[in-house]
Amino acid sequence: MSRLGNKFAELTGRKALLAYLVAGDPIKEVTVDLMHTLVAAGVDGIELGVPFSDPEAEGPVIQLAHERALANQISLADCFKMVSEFREQNQHTPVILMGYLNPIESMGYEVFAERSATAGADGMIIVNLPPEEAVDLSGSLERHDLDLVYLLAPTTTDARAEMICGKSRGFVYYVSLKGTTGAANIDVDDVERKLARFRSMSTLPILVGFGIRDGKTAAGVGQHADGVVVGSAIVDLVAKNATDPANMTSAVSSLVSEIRLALDDLTG
């Protein structure tokens, strides 16, 4: 069983909390420290964003983070190095690389899978890769025991949702909003209705992302989901404290701790 599978098995009713960072934002030197900060504050897994020049699913906050990371010349190889450095102190917390297909195509599927596994990554979320076009990459990842996580959207039909749930590994990621990351006004009632549909199609945990920005929104969604993913709210704090790493660490830790406590309150 993968680290993701082991982690979800350990939770036994506790809601999962995943957190997203862009590798190399605002500078390369802070990323691994922030990853450890997230773990200390209570996350169950980390999504490490691979910088890309056209992150079409991202809102302004994360788009700017990608631009900053690219200005720092952060590459896919740098992301592997960060995961390896994180693994020197943490062999337990799952790390998922999240990004877009183009850098992987450039590297080659088998090389990408091998280097990801060697670095200590556990899975991938590739935003612009539909499952119909993922056969070759999925095969390479499976040979290296890496999970490929797919996305569901509010507009996903039942037939397509069944296919996505059948192919996803580790967990299923439900994008709660018809828009880009960082959008506000998440409709918890609509999330409840959609998850009720999808649960009958998947044996995997279903986590909800997009629109989770504090303890209140996390708790609202967490009543119905197996866990939540918080991204833009963290990346925004990184940007606002870019010149003060100590304040950055404190602000990120406080937000994540707030969300962790809110989720834990749901299960007593």
Write the SSE topology.
Elements: H1 3-11, E1 16-22, H2 31-41, E2 45-49, H3 60-71, H4 76-87, E3 95-99, H5 101-107, H6 109-119, E4 123-126, H7 135-143, E5 147-149, E6 151-152, H8 158-167, E7 172-175, H9 188-199, E8 206-209, H10 215-222, E9 227-230, H11 232-240, H12 245-267
Parallel strand pairs: 1-2, 1-9, 2-3, 3-4, 4-5, 6-7, 7-8, 8-9
Helix pairs in contact: 2-4, 2-12, 4-6, 6-7, 10-12, 11-12
Characterization of this structure:
The chain is of the alpha/beta class. It has a single domain, classed as Aldolase class I (TIM Barrel, Alpha-Beta Barrel). 50% of the residues lie in helices and 14% in strands. β8 (206-209), α10 and β9 (227-230) form a beta-alpha-beta unit.
